[in-house]
Amino acid sequence: MIELITTAESVDQAKGLIRAGVDTLYIGEEEFGLRLPASFSREEMIEITEFAHTYNKRICVAVNAIMHNDRIKEVIPYLEFLQKIGVDSITVGDPGVIHLLKINKIDIPYVYDAHTMIASAKQINFWMKRGAIGAVLARELTFEELKTIAAQVTIPIEILVYGATCIHHSKRPLLENYFNFTEQSMPSEGLFISEPKKPDSHYSIFEDMNGTHIFATNDVNLLPYLESLVDVGLTQWKLDGIFTHGDDFIEIARLFIEAKQALAAGNLTEKLIEQLNGQLISLHPKERSLDEGFFLKDPNDVK
């Protein structure tokens, strides 16, 4: 069964995504989760969770931040809160958090999410044996690598089918340091960096309490390849709306929902794929480009 997972930037957008037919919402607080479109308050998380459950949909909460000593002390009350409100799962990348779940008998299923590190079936199976109910694959994997991994695991593995790809994360406030050094005020959004020898490069960059995050020039769009994913057993699809806002993101989610339904009915034709993909391109932010990421690359060419 195909599971469609999306981020959410507001309570209203979260409800719109649930009404549209998304299976799982991915939300959280900035203090404990990385690269979220919004940091929700506890009250908002309760409201979203209750709303999703009335539609028999699921809530997955990001607890995948890099936990230093100061933050690991605060994570137990947060996990207890998430258990109390009945979230369905969390994403975790720090083994220390997994340890705290177990010794404090906090009963929340976890998905292992160590960002770029999850690139083999052996690592996924290692964490499966230690209780993980799923894993988030690295974004820099080719289809050939994905096929090999999918054939060797027994838990769901999440693949990004739409959205931005983070290519660098530093805990340091690099933007703040730069703008302080140059004695300029720092814009709140729209920042990017480029390579001097690649004038077309456009690496989005932003800073939050978790540090500095840099994203690939092109956002990922695997809508034309969904049938190939299903054929090899990759049926947990993630849509990340960190740079796609409001109703446009909901409408893009609807396109994937329509493709999912067409696949289930056996009538996802080339014509329909072309039509849905054209609509996605028209809804995608004009200032951001799209491609298939690493999906079609030869593994030998990925350096």
- Give the strand order, joined by hyphens, for the main sheet: 1-2-3-4-5-6-7-13
* Overall geometry: globular
Compute the CA-based radius of gyration. 19 Å
CATH architecture of the largest domain: Alpha-Beta Barrel
Number of helical segments with 4 or more residues: 11
The CATH superfamily of the largest domain is identified as Ribulose bisphosphate carboxylase, large subunit, C-terminal domain
Element string (H = helix, E = strand)? EHEHEHHEHEHEHEEHEEEEHEHHE
Low-confidence stretches: none
CATH topology of the largest domain: TIM Barrel
Helix % is 25-40%
Strand content: 15-25%
Question: What is the residue-mean pLDDT, rounded to a whole number?
Answer: 94
Any overview of this molecule?
This protein is an alpha/beta fold. It has two domains: 3-164 and 219-301, TIM Barrel; 166-215, no CATH class. The protein contains eleven helices and 14 strands. The protein has helices at 11-20, 42-54, 69-72, 75-85, 95-103, 121-128, 143-150, 174-181, 226-231, 246-265, 270-283, and strands at residues 3-7, 24-27, 58-63, 89-92, 110-112, 134-136, 157-163, 166-170, 192-195, 198-208, 211-215, 218-221, 236-239, 289-291. It has an eight-stranded parallel β-barrel with strand order 1-2-3-4-5-6-7-13, surrounded by five helices. A four-stranded antiparallel β-sheet has the order 8-11-10-9, covered by helices on one side. Helix 5 links the parallel strand 4 and strand 5 (110-112). Helix 1 packs parallel to helix 2. It is globular. It starts with a strand and ends in a 12-residue tail after the last strand. The model has no long low-confidence stretch (mean pLDDT 94).
